[in-house]
């Protein structure tokens, strides 16, 4: 807890992780986000600096946690040419990257950080906003095992399940598969409930039957009632669902596999995004299949 902790990317997940570590006695020195208003509000709440650049975060922190959205953002914050890059102050620092991005992006981060005298770990989350705040994340970690052990104490404060997967990129592969299967389950549940609604069935009854049979799933527990009630408050957005299914399909193409169910799910989420509903929760895919919902 003597380490100074900085955050790059303090949206819903990163912000709640920062709050959790502050509650557990860690010194949060700096937060930075593309949305400066979000970063300034959190900095005021936590009593730390709202930094103008990722470089400033790494300058005044010992451990930097990153929660960005895509490969492009990873390339920017770990740029070898931009003065705003965290690599300008990487020597002796530990970087832990929580973003669901391609395996190549995590491998790139490790290579560049080590080249500049730091250490790097990927820690992929199979959880949501509430778990980030409560410190009950499921974390899958990739990188060099000694670095994982170095980060273990801090990661245990954020998680209820902590697993070392393998070298850099492997945790990203596992996370892509987790989200691919979750997205397929979500799309299938939406179709089941949508058809049940069209047939005039009681959806509360149908969800109960699903839960006691082979149709049961974790998604049924988290999203079934929301689909029925059209309550799509965002915990994991349709935009991110589309992105993550795309990552998995890229891995499938590289491996020479055809995944028709994953492809169909990807197309559903792309359709939802293109309709202007990308910021709905992933449960919003139900809007595409319930009769009369899409105008």
Q: Could you walk me through the main structural features you see in this protein, from its secondary elements to its overall organization?
A:
The protein is an alpha/beta fold. It has two domains: 4-168, 3-Layer(aba) Sandwich (Rossmann fold), CATH 3.40.50.720; 173-288, N-(1-d-carboxylethyl)-l-norvaline Dehydrogenase, domain 2 (Orthogonal Bundle), CATH 1.10.1040. Helix content is 53%, strand content 15%. It contains twelve helices and eight strands. The protein has helices spanning 12-23, 36-46, 54-59, 71-77, 103-115, 129-134, 145-158, 170-198, 203-211, 218-229, 238-255, 260-277; strands at 4-8, 27-32, 49-50, 63-66, 94-97, 119-125, 137-143, 159-166. Helix 8 (170-198) crosses helix 12 and helix 9 (203-211) packs antiparallel against helix 10. The protein starts with a strand and ends in an 18-residue tail after the last helix. The relative contact order is 0.09.
The number of E-state strands comes to 8
Give the CATH class of the largest domain.
Alpha Beta
What does the average pLDDT come to?
A: 96
Strand content: 5-15%
Radius of gyration, CA atoms, in whole angstroms? 20 Å
